Fold this protein.
Amino acid sequence: MDTNRREFLKGTAWMGAAAIAAGCISAKNAPCCGAGGSMFGFAAKPLKKIRVGCVGIGSRGSGAVHRLASIPGVEVVALCDIEQRRVDIQQKWLKENKKPAAKEFVGADAYRRLCDWDGADCIYNTTPWELHVPVALCAMRGGKHVFIEVPSAFTVDECWELVETSESLKLNCMQLENCCYGEAEMLALNLCRLGLLGDLVHAEGAYIHDLRDHNYGDLGKDPHAYWNHWRLRWNTKHKGNQYVTHGLIPLMEYMGINRGDRFDYLVSLESDQFNFEAYGKANYPAGDWHHEHKVQMGDMNTTLVKTVKGRSIMIQHDVSSPRPYSRINRITGTKGTLAGGAFLYGDKAITSEWPVRFGWEEKSGAGVHAYFPEAKQKELRKQYMHPYWKQAGEIAMKVGGHGGMDFLMDLRWAYCLQNGIPLDTNVYDLAASCCIGELSERSVRNRSSSVDFPDFTKGAWKTQPPLGIETVDLSKMGLGVGDVKKDKAALNV
Ligand SMILES: NC(=O)c1ccc[n+]([C@@H]2O[C@H](COP(=O)([O-])OP(=O)(O)OC[C@H]3O[C@@H](n4cnc5c(N)ncnc54)[C@H](O)[C@@H]3O)[C@@H](O)[C@H]2O)c1
C-alpha cells in the first residue's frame, strides 16, 4: 500500500470504517489483474451509442433523465429507484417523448442488479449522499463508467477506493460538477487561459444557499423535500464543509489543481449553528421530531487551502442562514481579477453575485482599483465568452437546468465518450475536492488545526497540462436549437 495512503487510513480510523459495502461484483467483469496506471489522459473506446442507467430519480435525477434522453446517441436504458412511483413518472415521460421504454430496477438494493446487467454502459448516480460511493463502486465492478452527483465521496478512504477502482478497471469515474459549465465560470477559465489575469494567486468560492426548507420539508407536503430527510440526517452527524464542489471545482480548473499544482494543507473554522434547530422549532409543532432534531453542522464554515505552489483558496459553506445564494467565484492573478456568477434566465439572475465583474491592468503597474465600466464589461463578456458557450449556450439555455450549465456538462462528457476523448475531469479531481468533507471536519473538531491533503495522483500532477478550451462538434452530433425543448423538471435552485 502506498505510504501516503497508509498514513491517511490510520489518520481516519477515528471516523470509523468508510461506508463502502458494494458487494455486487460480477465475475465476468471483475478486475483481472489490477492493471493500475494513471487515469490522466485516459480515453475509453468510443461508444457511438451510450446506454445509461439512471439511479435515484428524485428531484435531480428527473432532470437528468430528460437531459440525457435529449442528447443524440444517448439512450436512458434503465431507471432505478427505491420507490416504484418515481420510476413510473420517468417511464411515462419517456413514452410521452417517444423514447424507448427503460428497464426497471426497483428496491433498496436494485442498483446492484442494474450494475450487473449487460444492457448499460454507464451509471448516472443521483442518489442521496450515503449511496454515492456504494453505487459507484458497484457500477465500476460491473464494468460500467460512472457519473456521480456532487459531492461524490466524503472520506479520504472512500476517495482512495474510487481512485484505485477507476485505475485498476480503466473506467471513468466522473463527478458531475455542473458549475464548471456556467457562463461566468467558463468566461473566467477563458480569461485565465488567455493570461489576461496574469499568474493566478488567490481564489474564493462558496456554496451559500438557504436550504432549511429542503432539509426540514416532508415528502408529499413540501415541494423541495429530500427523500427520507437524507440531508438533514447528514447534518446531524457532521461538521466541516460537506458540499464543497460547486464553489471549488471551477477554481481548481482555473488554477490547474492536479495539473501543475495540488492542494497541500487546509485549516477550517466554523460558527456554531444558530439557524438550523431554530428553524425546526419555529416552523413545526412542539413535540414532533422536526422540533427535537439536534444538528452538529455549524451555519458558516470557512476553509482555507494552501497549494504546494504557494497559492491560496478560501471556500465557504452555509446552507442555513437567511442570505441570498452565492458561489462567490473570485479569481485573482498578478494582473487582474474576476468575481461573480449566476444561473441566468434572460435578465433574471438567481444569486447575489451578478453581474460577473472583472478588470485587468491595461498598462503595466497601473493596478486594478475598480472593475471595468459596465458597458465595457458587457462587450468584453461577449468577446471572451468561452467558445463552448458561444457554440451550445443557446441550446443549453433553451433546455434549462441551472441556466443551461447542466445540459452543457452532460453534452460534453457524452461527446467525449462518443469520440474516444478524455473527459474534462477525472477521478483525481473528484478525490482532491471530496476529501475536504473529512479533512475540514477534522480541522473544525480540532480547533482549526492544519490538515495535510493526500496526493491521489501519486506525483502525476507535476507533469499534467491544465484543462484546455474544449468544445464539441454539434453538426457531428446532429444537434441544433430546434432539436430540444424546455424541460419543466430542470432544477433552477
Ligand atoms: N449539481 C447540482 O446542481 C445538484 C442539485 C441538487 C442536488 N444535487 C445532488 O443530487 C443528489 C440527489 O439530490 P436530490 O435533491 O435529487 O435528492 P432527492 O431526495 O430528491 O432524490 C433522491 C432519490 O434517490 C432515491 N433513492 C433513495 N434510496 C435509494 C436506493 N437505495 N436506490 C435507488 N434510489 C434511491 C429516492 O427515492 C429519490 O428518488 C445529491 O447528491 C445532491 O447533492 C446536485
User: Anything to note?
Assistant: Residues 55-61, 80-83, 86, 108, 111, 126-129, 131, 149-150, 178, 226-227, 402, 491 surround nicotinamide-adenine-dinucleotide (CB under 6 Å). The radius of gyration is 22 Å. Residues 179-390+425-463 form a domain with the Dihydrodipicolinate Reductase; domain 2 fold (CATH 3.30.360.10). The first strand starts at residue 50 and ends at 55.
